[in-house]
Amino acid sequence: MMLIDSPEKTGMLLVPYGSASPRAMATYEKILALYRKDYPGMPVLLAFTSRLMIKRLQEREGIAIPNIEEALGKLSGQGCKQVVVQSLQIVPGGEFHRLVSLSREYEKKDADPERRLKITIGLPLLSCLEDCRRVSEALPDLWRPSRDAESKEGDETVRKSQFAVESKKEAVLLAGHGTGHPADAIYSQMAQVLKKDYGQVLLGTIEGFPSLLEMIDELKVIGAQKVRLRPFLLVAGGHAENDISGPAPDSWKSSLERAGIEVDFHLSALGEIEGIVQILKEHSLKALEEMEMQADRRG
Predict the structure, then answer these.
(1) Transmembrane ranges (predicted)?
(2) Tens digits of per-residue pLDDT, 241-297?
(3) Measured between alpha carbons, how far is 214 from 209 in angstroms, rounded to an integer?
């Protein structure tokens, strides 16, 4: 990916909610590495919006991750005059809007508009219908890696047919986070795209709509006796390990088994798929292009 020419030093800040899970941190590091490969010479940092996750990660693993304000200050200290703050959220819900608010507050810290750090926001993974379609195309890599690897460069129709569920008694169930924000509606849109593309592939959410109860009802209606349960999360952290697959009676896995449905679970995450990261990188590129247009207007 080509770096857009600019007379001012530019930085990139990747911002998820955060996690204290070692596996999740490994995924964040992988995403950082892919960004740094595409933007050699550009400072690319990671920050969390969650102070709780920052504290837990420091206490458990001895890893220090900055919050947004600290990371922006570090980039400014490295000489950056403009920064793309790239959201690593799935949908533009409450955490995304908090990210935007914190970024704008930092931007206004300097009373002199000419000296202010100029910030442009990169949109979350699912920000429009086309994003949903692109994510759906990349999902065969979430599981069946050996079969999909053979067709990775091949026809997309072949990849989708490989992903499809062979038996009507089997379904794929994806577990997303969900939110109380109106942006939760994007999960329903994503679910419709998945149904159109693959048939018996369902998407529910932990904290939004549709919930696990609706998912169990739908699985019973279609006669599914077995599900391949996978997280629809950027990283496989606490939600994947506890809420989705944990031993507690209210986890997704336990609840499905109690309903008489056999569960095949594999710990995986969207951020482990390069095709998914590519969508985020394209959002970052659009933010960089917007930044350049704003600079031209300031002229």
Answers:
(1) none
(2) 999 999 999 999 999 999 999 999 999 999 999 999 999 999 999 999 999 888 767
(3) 8
Q: How far is CA 139 from CA 119, 134, 160, in A?
A: 32, 9, 9
Task: Extract the tokens encoding 36.
Answer: 């740094």
CB atoms within 10 A of CB 41: 8
> Under a CB-based contact definition with an 8 Å cutoff, are residues 261 and 297 in contact?
no
Domains in the chain, ordered, with CATH?
10-127+273-298 (3.40.50.1400), 129-270 (3.40.50.1400)
Summarised one tens digit per residue, pLDDT across range 109-145 is 876 777 789 999 999 999 999 999 999 999 987 756 4
226: three-class secondary structure by DSSP: strand
